[in-house]
Design a protein that fits this description.
Helix content is 75%, strand content 0%. The chain is mainly alpha-helical. The longest helix has 37 residues. The protein is elongated and about 95 Å long.
């Protein structure tokens, strides 16, 4: 069998390939013009396909992701209502990132985020959960109106009742920043 394989290979290679003659046109420029027209058509069709793709992607984006910011803020506030501390920390972390201007801070307060953060802080059993709740409260406290809403929701007593954290110094830092912010706005005198 091994001796037959090389002989069979040389037998197949000995055959001469058939040559197809290309067509010769009388005009040499006709082929070039045709080629140039084909290239131009391909280029135009390529741009058309790109535009169709961009338009479709834009349309799909607007259909599937409407008002993404508001939806994410509402989902973040909803995460604070879950019993699992991991989801609560994720919601608080997202709220801290969303609270970048007064308008968004007040939107979070209106959605009930301030009250949920205060509830989360009061019910927190570990330092990581307390830290994320305090960090989100600090982010909200940059707005005077939000500080008023936090004071009404009982944030001062929840912050004061937060146990001292030996392991995490950030918890104490956020706690002191919040209490100082309430003191600066004279909110602590009203609630005491």
């Amino acid at each position: 069998m091994r001796t037959l394989a090389p002989q069979f290979g040389t037998y197949l290679c000995r055959r001469k390939p058939v040559n197809f003659q290309s067509r010769n046109f009388s005009s040499a420029s006709y082929g070039r013009d045709e080629r140039a027209m084909e290239e131009e058509a391909e280029r135009k069709i390529g741009w058309l396909l790109k535009l169709i793709f961009a338009g479709t992607a834009t349309f799909v984006g607007y259909q599937f992701f409407p008002y993404l910011g508001d939806n994410l803020m509402q989902q973040s506030v909803s995460l604070l209502q879950v019993k699992d501390p991991l989801f609560k920390r994720m919601g608080a972390s997202r709220i801290a990132r969303f609270a970048i201007d007064d308008e968004r801070r007040m939107k979070i307060v209106e959605m009930g985020g301030a009250q949920e953060l205060v509830n989360m802080l009061g019910a927190a059993k570990d330092d990581r959960t307390r830290k994320e709740a305090l960090k989100a409260l600090v982010a909200l406290s940059h707005s005077d109106e939000a500080v008023g809403a936090l004071q009404k929701s009982g944030a001062i007593s929840a912050i004061r009742s937060t146990p001292y954290s030996v392991e995490d110094a950030e918890v104490e830092k956020h706690k002191l920043n919040l209490l100082k912010r309430f003191h600066d706005l004279r909110c602590d005198e009203v609630s005491s």
